[in-house]
Write a structure and sequence with these properties.
Layout: H1 9-13, E1 21-30, E2 33-43, E3 48-53, H2 59-66, E4 74-79, E5 82-84, H3 89-95, E6 97-100, H4 112-116, E7 123-124, E8 127-128, H5 130-143, H6 161-174, E9 179-183, H7 191-206, E10 210-214, H8 218-224, E11 227-232, E12 235-241, H9 247-256, H10 260-265
Parallel strand pairs: 3-10, 3-11, 6-9, 9-10
Antiparallel strand pairs: 1-2, 1-4, 4-5, 7-8, 11-12
This protein binds adenosine-5'-triphosphate and magnesium ion (MG).
Adenosine-5'-triphosphate (ATP) binds near residues 33, 35, 56, 58 and 59.
Keywords: ATP-binding, Nucleotide-binding
InterPro entries: AAA+_ATPase, ABC_carbohydrate_import_ATPase, ABC_transporter-like_ATP-bd, P-loop_NTPase
GO molecular function, one term: ATP binding
Length: about 270
């Protein structure tokens, strides 16, 4: 089993590392639609950055720029201190950027092991090393304290929404991702399953991964965030540590792009 528990702590001891990912002045237009305008965002390792914003604010477009699905029209994406050009999801994956979508992430007809190794199967002497893959899948789920899955040979179609989400997250851990992006991971989940997924998100950050979570749900936002970034009509109106914000401020920022109470608190935005 690969462990990444120590990731981040060594770096922390050294002088001020930059963020894992930095977006600088990103623009993205679709014809006349300005989906993103001049967006700056730092995404540090070991923290959960929640991306909040109303419908159509540009959240999905922003993460698609990071995932290599859209190319920004202007601005820079800086990864581990170096500018990168992400031409495809493959480029993003090669850097260690994994995106977990609500429903598209897994193949229903395949089992958990097959899903976790899809496209990256382990082969030994020319044949699939099923035993090794099964052990690695089981170890990874166990290391994340995912205990409700009975067998890694279960087809994914038979899993609950929360279990599916857990398997998709475990997959990113198995592949040693450095940044995991989740678009509304709890949108379709019940209370107990939401709890499981939020805990898993916390655990990813505690292992030193950078996590970006899109969420509309203020309960989830404040349960899981270290930092909150608010997009309004394609502009980043605030990026703050969670301690400087409360629900009312975030809702004001989401709806009007400003909050007098935040201004009173004296921060920049
Ligand atoms: N492929 C596209 N072609 C044209 N316009 C697009 C495209 N994708 C997104 N947009 C537009 O860009 C804007 C931002 O869309 P985006 O999907 O990022 O919103 P969002 O913040 O994810 O909203 P939601 O919370 O509803 O998912 C919207 O006005 C949308 O119509
Ligand atoms: Mg969206």
């Amino acid at each position: 089993m690969r462990r990444s528990d120590d990731a981040g702590t060594e770096e922390d001891a050294m002088t001020e590392p930059g963020p894992l990912l930095r977006l600088e002045k990103i623009d993205k237009n679709f014809g006349p639609v300005h989906a993103l305008t001049n967006v700056d965002l730092d995404v540090p390792a070991g923290q959960v950055t929640v991306l909040a914003g109303d419908n159509g604010a540009g959240k999905s477009v922003l993460i698609k720029c990071i995932a290599g699905i859209h190319r920004p029209d202007a601005g820079r994406i800086i990864w581990e201190g170096r500018p990168v050009d992400l031409r495809s999801p493959r480029d993003a994956a090669a850097l260690g950027i994994e995106t977990v979508y609500q429903d598209l992430a897994l193949c229903d007809n395949l089992d958990i092991v097959q899903n976790m190794f899809l496209g990256r199967e382990r082969v030994r002497h020319g044949i699939l090393d099923e035993e090794q893959m099964e052990i690695a899948a089981r170890d990874t789920l166990r290391s994340l304290a995912v205990t409700t899955v009975q067998s890694v040979r279960q087809p994914v179609a038979s899993l609950s929404g929360g279990q599916r989400q857990s398997v998709a997250i475990a997959k990113s851990v198995l592949w040693n991702s450095k940044l995991v992006i989740m678009d509304e991971p709890t949108a379709a989940l019940g209370v107990a399953q939401t709890e499981v997924v939020l805990e898993l998100i916390r655990r990813l950050a505690d292992r030193g991964l950078a996590v970006i979570v899109i969420s509309h749900n203020m309960n989830d936002v404040f349960r899981v965030a270290d930092r909150i970034a608010v997009l309004t009509l394609g502009r980043m109106v605030a990026v703050r540590p969670v301690a400087e914000l409360d629900r009312k401020i975030v809702v004001e920022l989401m709806t009007s792009g400003r909050s007098d109470r935040l201004a009173e608190a004296g921060g920049r935005s």
